């Protein structure tokens, strides 16, 4: 143990534990375990919770570099569930690293937060307008937000105040310690970049080789993050429309008009279900995350506009909302909201959100209204306070951290990568610009980004700051 370890000051029952690995159900070649962490790092001798892990050992035992910990974002995505499914993308890294995924506190197998049942999720999807137009719709929107938060508090209790990113970063350092790694090697994607930035801020001396891809802007507060996303999704929509040979301004107006028609009269979608405006917007959002899904967006819009049916857009919305064909829902969105609201101290009021509408509509007629209302609705009357106005990421003293930003990224716009590299500090944040589309640059189809990232992680080759792919 050395200064700066999360393990410092913790009781021996936590510091000296070693994971008991056993075969994972349904994931051949992977082993699973759990590690105890303090519920409250301010009271380390008190209650503990378990953090779930999954691992596949490095193939080259002699050349092994240690563990490579992954976080795939959300927040709320289960690393235990996703890493074995995504591992084909990391085969080269698995040659010298143990691939390790985890469910952060409050997620899935790590005391996952659950706020309402499937019936409640379905009712909200069907009845709550996420872009309210009347006083009655506004009242219903905020009443549902309050009900969601109360459900989290009722079902999660004391845990709810302790699921923030800072505590998850402390957990990562304890995981590093019990896994036997001197420094943390880490691959964070989307929200995983916020978590990685927080780790580097809290434990700069423990940073090993760290990659942050699809980067959350660490300088943005609640409103700033929403503003960034409005611009990012509109930029992606413009690029999609341009790829079809359609003028982006006219295409955006066409889609906005379609959403307005659906708001007045939902579209039939089969099996007794309807496509309302909120679900239609969600269905448009999902395929903008990946250029490979743009044909799905075209087919869904053609069906809605040409045939007056919403089945394809509804299927896309169901996928985004983690809704199974039997009507059951996953809980990633519950964890996402709980973590985000514990992180964020800013609490815009309904009146303040409403005042943002003109500006946000100018940014994006399609996405702006939803994101403006969301600034107040997401954490409305949340039962526990937020921890900070903006994420922490300054990491003076850390080694070089590779920051990958994609110019067409809709959810974490490219500008956030520049700001993350700056916030990490001089000679720490190394920016790699990927000129392309989609959420994240490290993909099997992007040989340039994957080659640079692999050389950095496997050989320690730090690329020149400001490099470009594409």
From TrEMBL:
It comes from the Bacteria. Belongs to the peptidase S33 family. The keyword Lipid metabolism does not apply. Keywords: Hydrolase, Signal. It comes from Streptomyces tirandamycinicus. This is Peptidase. Residues 365-469 form the Peptidase S33 tripeptidyl aminopeptidase-like C-terminal domain. One of its GO terms (molecular function) is hydrolase activity. It holds the Pfam family Abhydrolase_4. The keyword Signal applies.
